[in-house]
Write the structure tokens for this entry.
Amino acid sequence: MEILTAKEMREIDKKAIESYGIPGTVLMENAGIQTVIALEEKFQDLSKKRVAVFAGKGNNGGDGAVVARHLFEKKIQVEIFLFAKQENTSPDAKINLEIARKMGVPIHEVESLDQLKNFKSRLAHTHIFIDALLGTGIKPPVKGVLLSVISLLNDLNKFTLAIDIPSGLNSDHGNVEGEVFKANMTVTFCRPKRCHFLCPAADLVGELKVVDISIPDKIVSDEKIKVHTIDRNNIGFLHKKRKQSSHKGTYGHLLVIGGSAGKGGAAAMAGLSALRIGTGLVTLAVPQSVNSSIEMNPIEVMSIPLPETKEGSIDFAAKDKLLESINGKSAVLIGPGISTQQETIDLLIAIIPEIKVPILIDADGLNCLAEHLDVLRKAKGQVIITPHPGEMARLTRKTVKEVQANRIGIAEKFAADYNVIVVLKGTGTIIASPDGISFINTTGNAGMATAGTGDVLAGMAAGLLAQKVTPPNASKAAVYLHGLAGDRVSQEKGEISLIASDLIEVIPSILK
């Protein structure tokens, strides 16, 4: 599904109205009706609830007026608190406010916080707040009377449904600036907006419902939106049945270059994850001192002992052996537990330009290259990088805060600059390709914030590469399934106790 900016949504609305002749009042009517349906699905006893609609002067407020009059028609106690003069509202909002007034819906024009406080006792006995104050058309932070109003309403701690986006958010990114109406549910129209998936803004959205308001799909497809969600449609290629004549070589051979003293488990988990995602053969190339433990666990992988530094990381002397080992492999994963010793850095700089198959670089593999990014352009095969925000900050010479404030933009720029696929991990993992198309993942949970889950993801994605899955598809499928595995474990064991190896255990059931 496409994910829109405020500007893209405005263009889509405009084309629906001007090119297709769908009146704005019809779109507003549909938006209001769909919001009421969402409320009815949420509350089986909605008829027993008191509802307050907080409306602004724009079309978001008009949506709220439609909600109010449909609730009123269903004999539900509802009133509108309008933070404007009715004559100063947008044309379509004015029409719906006037209809609501004529029907008998109470409308209170509020111009100050003191006026609202006069209703505080009544609001305290209200069950549901509808946020129709601002919508997508504002640039935070909220100022003036609405700042105090949102703060007051948040303190009352009621169930809140936001229309389109919670008031106070910028629809185009995940930043939270100033006061925001905290929603338990958000009903958005046509397509989701970026803030619905990017944290910390996404934490204030609550349950998200995307509803149809009769905007033709062709209008959206014609806009050529470049940011999408990842869903099951992106992984359909995994359903392909294996032929009876298959053998282990049919499904690729992955070489994992990683491990160092104390970090051999990272390479081992990556290798086992690759096997679980269907790779035929996996070989781990690790320092000699790590090799003995690798040969015992996981027992299904092969290993190559490499010359090591006195600190226990892979030494530059391993170059020829590694290049020889790459022959016959269908993909290479570099980084899990590899460390950042200078000899190891020099080794990676030397071998990456010689690798002709797809490469995935993760963890310390990325930290090794932070001062040598030109080597990415020298790779002969397609490269995927899988940084977390801290690693992305080092690669781009920005702060983590700057990366998190512009996750999509920073990932897209790096992908284009270095001709790589960027998998920027975190809540709402971003996948950005050099062609400017990006995806936001919708699976996963906070329990996955634990050591080793990144190694599992790297192994899954690299394992798909080894099976000749295209790098974009491998990235999308691995990220989606990795999050889905985390969700399955969370359901069975809870978030607190989740560990990385739990994810590997449920990969088979997720695939099945």
Summary: The chain has a mean pLDDT of 95.
